[in-house]
């Protein structure tokens, strides 16, 4: 493409393939001579108009090609060289109009200069011309010209614009009488003003914009923004689109700033005295009666665990003084979850929201099209806040959101960058077919006091994870439905498991929002270590997992059929300098979990109410967590009142399973010091065994994970929770059945002490025989049984937990490896058997290591103990023989809180840790798989499996097979003795590998160091290492294939390489060798694995 400018004329050319080298074809002309409503035109229109000499004066040197009907530009007449044209062409080729590209100047729409000096732009309504005086031709697209203003004050009834509406100046929709505008699209390049013209919201609406048509439309913007779209095709708007492209939304259609879009319910009643239904409703804020008028629709939120128990009612009359609304029809069953009702009170009163608005954006049913009522969409695209403080207030958006089409949502800020001043407030989004309010590549947008009902997919949504400084304040969502998985927009999207609030970046504000009934989650923080979508494609880098949570305060989640709040499946953690804080969250009557925190560290749950959920709080694999001043309830009397009033309707899961379920583990060994969790000044109520057989706290095992450390302080056992026994407070009996022993809960103020209340100590597992012996030997104190709890209370004990990780291959049988601890003064000696970080599974007669979620946990043997003050010696035994692991890693828990100021932390030393000669003679154990050598290997993360299979290779009978590989990174791993790796020495890495498809056929691969995860690459050797200071390293391409697998070798390939260990590798505390690679979905076979030192050290290893 070539661009030539002459005065005010923009000429776009392409080289003519059938013309001489010195001629160019004219593709499009934008000229002052062209009427503004014809700026967008097809080739035929361009040819016809220009051959009729409409722009003859502007086209000196241009002729019409007789053979093609197109215009030919004479290069000489244009006085530009071919090189100059090609330079311009190259620049144009870079201007593709994929709106996903990002916040680039070449994509941004700007305020039209022709509007800036107009009085209407300064909101001078008097300068606007009545529509009827504007003489628009409705047989073509209607354009509000730049620099002009048109008013609809003189219109009523129906205005049909079959070819669309393009606002380049200002359109003031200030009609008093009801008006419906039917149009296939609205493009706003100027200003769309819709002021409030009413004192209350009633029915019918004052203004409706009804989207029609089934054909896609394309925006060819005003010439000042021509750069922002493809110069030939324009910007694809899909169909039924309202698009702001460089323009401004000035929609302020809400009757009163002080009137809320939703409030809580104070009471309900019956005008006819019915006891099982109601037809009057009094709100908590009577001020809403001034603007919620007769004929308007109200949504009454569910009071049960089911979102389907929400109700819609029509206002028949309003008492302006009391804020009481009377409905046209009675509603049953009786609602009790009000501020004054038995099922509500301040903690559990549900909400009522106004669905109606005086301005409605909707779609029109195209009966003749056969496509039904197609949804519309609305977007502010590539429009920054420079002169564009978008305001959308007081609109009902019905049937918008185009299912399965990326970027087509009811309200969408798309790649707008800084949008300071943009406000989406007091709108109602109903019957959306895809999401609600989406913020994408845009920042500083305020989304406030909106109502969403009966919508599909995630509702309030941050798209790529780079969106920051946006405010979601006092919004409401109910009946958030799943988007069918076949319409999933991107691989990372999860709209089939919808949340009312989907949070992909924590640096945003969430204050006072309500999630009142989602098919899955109310609030879902789903963070990743990288961005997704367009942001990642455009090279933006950011790790949302490592960013601070700006503000999460006063939010409410109820009646969700999954979890009220969830941070699953990805972790979100603070750091030693920053504690994530969730404040005053109320989560109740959810069919799933009240609040689920997964793999979270440095986190505080500050205040809040959690009640009548399946589990109230679930903390999975967390560390350094504080729960402070929260109220935890089992089966509350308020929910019992709901059950009594409704029977079994919507209340089938009214019994909480556990008030707090502390899943096994609280620690994930990603920190050198572990402190588990602290529960401080937490009040527990209503855990009566007779009602629901639940308890306030329970430990549940997640297999393959690790020890529980907990600090309890200031706990209050309130109404309905026994203070004399432990059964309704907590028990460890479930964990007892699963042989969990390493439980250490610090009872800082004696809340759990049955013998001497208010005397602190430690709660440990009843099956733990070693800790009481150490407590008695070191301190002279004894541990007593807590009734009905499967636990012991060690009064006045001062214990500090420590988990010791060693290489599983230290013993021929990892289950027979024993840690022996001796107290130096008393001589008290105890033994621990520990547990394996990976789970042993038998498959096809073979022992298979199936790793747990965390890499460290899958690669070692763990011993968790709790030591009183003093000095201790330790050694590892296989039977009666001392063995020496290749590494020993300690993870210490926090020091106890309740011990005296003179408390001294215990010390631990180990028996001789010399390097056995055999360890260094064969760095890899069991690399030829001719015995039971699979037991020395395990796979790394995921759900892959290992097993010994026939190698079908001459000179070998067995090989190791890694099956079920859903990622290239899944492979086989083994610790090597890092003490044998000497600085300056060189080592040779070698193995045979083969890739198989699902039918068992060999698959070829590309040799060479192509980069980890490269498509089609052969497997490779890698090294992972951990240093004593907690840092780690990762070396790729230590060994790789130099040739593709040969068919003559049965598909086997040799991977080979050399490495010299220097710096961090040579001094590493532990080193893991890992063979992985090859495309996901392929099985990986490995054999003849070896690491040989080829330049031996001058002295024996001493580390």
Write a compact overview of the structure shown:
By secondary structure, the protein is mostly beta strands. It contains twelve helices and 87 strands. The strands form eleven sheets. It has a 16-stranded parallel sheet. It has a 15-stranded parallel sheet with strand order 9-12-15-26-29-32-35-38-41-44-47-50-53-57-60, with no helix packed on it. An eleven-stranded parallel sheet has the order 6-8-11-14-19-28-31-34-37-40-43, with no helix packed on it.
Descriptive keywords:
12 helices; single chain; 1103 residues; 16-stranded parallel β-sheet; 15-stranded parallel β-sheet; globular; mainly beta; disordered C terminus; disordered N terminus
Written description of the protein model:
Mean pLDDT is 81; it is low at 1-104, 664-671, 701-706, 839-858 and 1097-1103. A hairpin with a 6-residue loop joins strand 4 and strand 5. The strands form eleven sheets. Strands 7-10-13-18-27-30-33-36-39-42-45-48-51-54-58-61 form a 16-stranded parallel sheet. A 15-stranded parallel sheet has the order 9-12-15-26-29-32-35-38-41-44-47-50-53-57-60, with no helix packed on it. An eleven-stranded parallel sheet has the order 6-8-11-14-19-28-31-34-37-40-43, with no helix packed on it. With 1103 residues, it is mainly beta. Helix content is 7%, strand content 39%. It has twelve helices and 87 strands.
């Amino acid at each position: 493409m070539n661009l030539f400018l002459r005065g005010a004329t923009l000429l776009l050319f392409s080289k003519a393939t059938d013309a001489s080298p010195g001629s160019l074809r004219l593709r499009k002309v934008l000229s002052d001579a062209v009427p503004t409503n014809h700026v967008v035109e097809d080739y035929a229109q361009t040819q016809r108009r220009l051959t009729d000499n409409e722009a003859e004066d502007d086209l000196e040197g241009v002729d019409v090609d007789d053979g093609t009907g197109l215009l030919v530009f004479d290069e000489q007449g244009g006085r530009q060289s071919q090189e100059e044209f090609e330079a311009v062409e190259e620049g144009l080729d870079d201007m593709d109009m994929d709106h996903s590209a990002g916040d680039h100047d070449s994509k941004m729409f700007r305020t039209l200069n022709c509007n800036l000096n107009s009085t209407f732009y300064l909101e001078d309504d008097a300068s606007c011309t009545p529509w009827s005086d504007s003489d628009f031709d409705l047989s073509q697209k209607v354009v509000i010209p730049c620099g002009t203003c048109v008013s609809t004050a003189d219109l009523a009834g129906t205005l049909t614009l079959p070819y669309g509406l393009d606002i380049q100046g200002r359109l003031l929709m200030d009609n008093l009488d009801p008006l419906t505008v039917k149009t296939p699209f609205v493009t706003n390049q100027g200003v769309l003003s819709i002021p409030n013209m009413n004192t209350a919201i009633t029915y019918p609406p004052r203004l409706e914009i009804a989207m029609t048509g089934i054909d896609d439309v394309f925006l060819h913007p005003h010439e000042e923004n021509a750069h922002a779209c493809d110069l030939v095709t324009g910007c694809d708007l899909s169909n039924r689109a309202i698009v702001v492209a460089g323009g401004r939304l000035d929609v302020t259609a809400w009757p009163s700033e002080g009137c809320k879009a939703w409030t809580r319910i104070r009471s309900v009643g019956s005008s006819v005295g019915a006891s099982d239904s109601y037809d009057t409703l009094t709100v908590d804020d009577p001020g809403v009666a001034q603007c919620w008028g007769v004929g308007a629709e109200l949504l009454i939120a569910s009071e049960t665990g089911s979102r389907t128990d929400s109700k819609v009612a029509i206002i028949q009359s309003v008492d302006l003084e009391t804020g009481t609304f009377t409905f046209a029809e009675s509603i049953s069953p009786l609602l009790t979850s009000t501020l004054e009702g038995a099922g509500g009170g301040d903690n559990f009163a549900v909400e009522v929201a106004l669905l109606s608005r005086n301005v409605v954006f909707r779609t029109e049913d195209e009966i003749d099209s056969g496509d039904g009522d197609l949804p519309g969409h609305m977007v502010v695209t590539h429009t920054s806040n420079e002169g564009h403080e978008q305001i959308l207030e007081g609109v009902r958006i019905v049937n918008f959101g185009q299912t399965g089409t990326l970027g087509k949502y009811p309200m969408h800020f798309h790649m707008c960058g800084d949008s300071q001043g943009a406000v989406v407030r007091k709108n109602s989004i109903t019957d959306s077919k895809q999401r609600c309010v989406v913020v994408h590549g845009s920042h500083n947008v305020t989304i406030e006091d909106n109502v969403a009902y009966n919508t599909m997919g995630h509702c309030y949504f941050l798209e790529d994870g780079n969106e920051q400084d946006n405010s979601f304040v006092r919004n409401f969502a109910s009946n958030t439905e799943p988007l069918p998985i076949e319409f999933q927009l991107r691989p990372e999207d999860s709209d089939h498991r919808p949340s009312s609030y989907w949070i992909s970046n924590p640096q945003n504000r969430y204050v006072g929002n309500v999630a009142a009934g989602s098919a899955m989650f109310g609030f879902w923080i789903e963070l990743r270590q990288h961005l997704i979508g367009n942001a990642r494609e455009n090279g933006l880098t950011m790790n949302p997992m490592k960013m601070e949570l700006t503000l999460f305060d006063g939010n409410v989640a109820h009646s969700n059929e999954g979890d009220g709040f969830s941070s699953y499946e990805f972790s979100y953690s603070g750091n030693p300098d920053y504690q994530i804080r969730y404040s005053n969250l109320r989560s109740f009557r959810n069919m799933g979990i009240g609040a689920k925190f997964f793999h979270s560290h440095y986190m505080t749950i500050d205040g809040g109410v959690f009640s009548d959920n399946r589990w109230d709080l679930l903390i999975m694999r967390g560390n350094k967590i504080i729960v402070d001043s929260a109220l935890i309830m089992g089966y509350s009397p308020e929910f019992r009142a709901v059950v009594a009033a409704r029977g079994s309707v919507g209340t089938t899961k009214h019994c909480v399973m556990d008030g707090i379920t502390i899943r096994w583990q609280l620690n994930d060994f990603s920190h050198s010091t572990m402190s588990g969790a602290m529960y401080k000044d937490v009040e527990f109520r209503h855990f009566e065994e007779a009602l629901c057989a639940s308890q306030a706290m329970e430990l549940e095992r997640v297999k393959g994970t690790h020890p529980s450390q907990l600090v309890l302080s200031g706990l209050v056992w309130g109404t309905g929770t026994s203070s004399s026994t432990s059964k309704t407070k907590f028990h460890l009996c479930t964990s007892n059945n699963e042989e969990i022993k390493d439980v250490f809960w610090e009872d800082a103020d004696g809340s759990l002490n049955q013998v001497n209340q208010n005397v602190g100590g430690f709660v440990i597992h009843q099956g733990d025989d070693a800790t009481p012996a150490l407590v008695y030997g070191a301190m002279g104190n004894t541990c007593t049984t807590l009734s009905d709890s499967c636990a012991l209370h060690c009064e006045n004990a001062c214990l500090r937990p420590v988990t010791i990780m060693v290489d599983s291959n230290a013993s021929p049988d990892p289950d027979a490896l024993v840690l022996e601890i001796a107290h130096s003064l008393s001589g008290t000696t105890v033994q621990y058997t520990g547990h394996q970080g990976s789970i042993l599974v038998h498959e096809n007669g073979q022992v298979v290591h199936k790793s747990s979620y965390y890499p460290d946990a899958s690669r070692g043997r763990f011993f968790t103990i709790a030591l009183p003050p003093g000095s201790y010696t330790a050694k590892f035994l296989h039977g009666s023989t001392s063995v020496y692991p290749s590494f020993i890693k300690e993870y210490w828990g926090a020091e106890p809180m309740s011990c005296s100021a003179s408390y001294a932390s215990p010390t631990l030393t180990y028996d001789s840790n010399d390097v056995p000669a055999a360890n260094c003679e064969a760095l890899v154990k069991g690399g030829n798989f001719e015995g039971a050598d699979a037991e020395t290997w395990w796979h790394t993360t995921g759900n892959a499996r290992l097993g010994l299979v026939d190698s079908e290779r001459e000179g070998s009978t067995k090989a190791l097979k890694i099956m079920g590989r859903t990622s290239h990174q899944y492979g086989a791993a083994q610790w090597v003795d890092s003490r044998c790796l000497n600085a300056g020495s060189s080592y040779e890495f070698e193995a045979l590998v083969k890739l198989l498809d699902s039918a068992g056929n060999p698959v070829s691969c590309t040799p060479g160091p192509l980069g980890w995860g490269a498509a089609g690459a052969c497997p490779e050797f890698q090294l992972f290492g951990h240093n004593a200071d907690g840092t780690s390293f990762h070396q790729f391409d230590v060994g790789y294939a130099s040739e593709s697998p040969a068919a003559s070798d049965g598909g086997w390939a040799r991977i080979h390489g050399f490495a010299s260990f220097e710096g961090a590798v040579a001094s590493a505390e532990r080193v893991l060798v890992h063979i992985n690679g090859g495309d996901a979905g392929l099985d990986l076979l490995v054999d003849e694995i070896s690491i040989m030192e080829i330049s031996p050290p001058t002295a024996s290893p001493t580390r």
